[in-house]
């Protein structure tokens, strides 16, 4: 089973997680920039974080045979803090980078006017840079939040088929699907979705345009939830091809809209290339990518 | 090390029509750019520098791994974005403040390319870019460390920093072949010999293997009279 986790915050995870994810079949992931659990007080703090998502974290992932891409944005929570909003003006410099496959996570937290402005501005940035957008839906007042999100997307220059709405559940999936957006589900140990409900939703709505992620971060979460959903799908009668569609081809298709997805693990970024292959660092002899499915 | 002309030929040979056209445009743009101190935002060629990785891919995808071996010129397909960025910096005649800015705002790949470009730029003769090399040597990204210990480091790093860099390469598994001009700088360097000897002892005491490259450098530190003799017998 090959797995692409389309939403996971590896900055907060350990090398044990990387090893377990690789063993479970994870070969690619996207790390959205988000809130760090601790408020930042200046734009420079964001730029160091972006640098990390574009340098150090992809290197760390590559050491474990996993391709790492990121999405960059000012997150909705910190969009409310005037000390952080100058990040919006600097984002264009980062959105041109090769490893950036979407603008995100954007969306609503408390549905404030500042969040309205940041969401609209960043949907426009996505359109300007040929990037899709990862839009999360708020944890509180979820259905109202989804509707307001879809309204803002509808008014934006970005067509819905370049938008992934995330953290969906039973109450929001229908309207999100009707909007034409891609559908993201975060499977968590005790909040958001669980494996059984996820499989029920897949049965009810089909696997088309559905992405399943662990959204694992610094909170109680599980980076192997993607695999667990895949296993339960098989146990519940979904075909291998349907599992592959949800856990690999859909994320590849969505982030591939950026034109920047690089899944040649045998190329530039494998651990073996960097540390074990003699002079291959400078000469470019590739290390074999783990080809196991 | 390839000259810029050789590097360009090696890159172009590996690109398809689209990639070659993109590179040609980017290099022309960089070569004709004027200083624009008051203009807002990055120059066009700087955006090309940032986005080079997605324009100079090898045409084939899903190719067998064996097809990725470096050619006789030593350039492998995985070097293409680095090489294209080096060519762009060279065409733009990037000076020390420019490379410092691009390094500071760069991804890991962009930083690596800046470091690899240093010997090809007019700034090579001066020590202004040493802070970039030292920054890269502080990271734990072995690809950056490897790019940092090129000809520019060989020429400009202080003896102390250079010895620390060699030790770090041995520590992190960066191959000795990445360290430019190491034979010349290591020759007769008794202090480096002492550091390597201590490191070897520490590894042995911990029951860990001593990196094979260590012996080669250690031998070179003793290559001239004046290298510390006491180490000679103890370490062999
Ligand atoms: Zn998240």
TrEMBL record, chain A:
Annotated SUPFAM superfamilies: Metallo-dependent hydrolases (SSF51556)
The keyword Hydrolase is annotated on this UniProt entry: yes
Family: Belongs to the metallo-dependent hydrolases superfamily.
Identification of the protein by name: TatD family hydrolase
Pfam family, one: TatD_DNase
Any one GO molecular-function label of the UniProt entry: metal ion binding
The keyword Cell inner membrane is annotated on this UniProt entry: no
UniProt keyword annotations, A-Z: Hydrolase, Metal-binding
From TrEMBL, chain B:
Region span, Disordered: 56-75
InterPro entries, sorted: EboA_dom
Name of this protein: Sugar phosphate isomerase
């Amino acid at each position: 089973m090959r797995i692409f986790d389309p939403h996971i915050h590896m900055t907060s995870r350990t090398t044990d997680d990387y090893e377990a994810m690789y063993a479970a079949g994870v070969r690619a992931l996207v790390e959205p920039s988000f809130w760090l659990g601790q408020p930042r007080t200046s734009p420079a703090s964001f730029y160091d974080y972006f640098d990390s998502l574009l340098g150090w974290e992809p290197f760390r992932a590559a050491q474990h045979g996993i391709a790492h891409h990121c999405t960059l944005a000012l997150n909705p929570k910190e969009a409310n803090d005037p000390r952080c909003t100058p990040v919006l003006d600097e984002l264009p410099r980062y959105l041109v980078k090769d490893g950036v496959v979407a603008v995100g996570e954007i969306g609503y937290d408390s549905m404030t006017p500042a969040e309205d402005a940041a969401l609209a501005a960043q949907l426009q940035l996505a359109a300007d840079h040929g990037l899709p957008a990862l839009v999360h839906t708020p944890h509180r007042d979820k259905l109202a939040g989804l509707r307001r999100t879809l309204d803002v997307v509808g008014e934006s220059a970005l067509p819905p088929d370049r938008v992934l709405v995330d953290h969906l559940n039973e109450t929001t999936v229908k309207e999100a699907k009707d909007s034409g957006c891609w559908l993201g589900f975060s499977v968590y140990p005790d909040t958001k979705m669980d494996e059984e409900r996820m499989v029920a939703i897949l049965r009810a709505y089909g696997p088309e345009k559905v992405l399943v992620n662990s959204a694992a971060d610094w909170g109680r979460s599980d980076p192997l939830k993607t695999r667990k959903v895949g296993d339960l799908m098989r146990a519940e009668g979904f075909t291998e091809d349907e599992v592959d569609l949800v856990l690999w081809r859909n994320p590849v298709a969505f982030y591939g809209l950026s034109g920047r997805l690089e899944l040649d693990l045998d190329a530039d970024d494998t651990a073996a290339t960097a540390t074990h292959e003699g002079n291959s660092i400078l000469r470019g002899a590739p290390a074999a990518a783990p080809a196991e499915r | 090390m390839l000259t810029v002309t050789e590097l360009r030929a090696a890159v172009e040979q590996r690109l398809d029509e689209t990639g070659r056209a993109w590179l040609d445009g980017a290099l022309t743009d960089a070569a004709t750019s004027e200083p624009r101190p008051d203009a807002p935002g990055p120059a066009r060629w700087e955006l090309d520098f940032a986005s080079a990785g997605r324009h100079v891919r090898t045409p084939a995808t899903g190719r067998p791994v064996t097809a990725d071996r470096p050619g006789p010129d030593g350039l492998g397909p995985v070097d293409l974005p680095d090489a294209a960025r080096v060519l762009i910096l060279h065409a733009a005649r990037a000076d020390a403040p420019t490379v410092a800015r691009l390094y500071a705002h760069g991804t890991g790949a962009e930083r690596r390319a800046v470091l690899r470009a240093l010997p090809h730029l007019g700034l090579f003769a001066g020590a202004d870019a040493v802070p970039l090399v030292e920054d890269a040597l502080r990271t734990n990204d072995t690809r950056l460390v490897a790019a940092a210990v090129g000809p520019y480091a060989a020429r400009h790093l202080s003896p102390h920093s250079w010895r620390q860099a060699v030790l770090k390469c041995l520590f992190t598994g960066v191959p000795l072949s990445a360290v430019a001009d190491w034979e010349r700088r290591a020759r007769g360097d008794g202090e480096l010999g002492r550091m390597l000897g201590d490191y070897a002892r520490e590894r042995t005491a911990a029951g860990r293997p001593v990196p094979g490259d260590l012996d080669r450098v250690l031998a070179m530190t003793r290559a001239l009279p004046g290298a510390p003799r006491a180490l000679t017998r103890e370490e062999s």
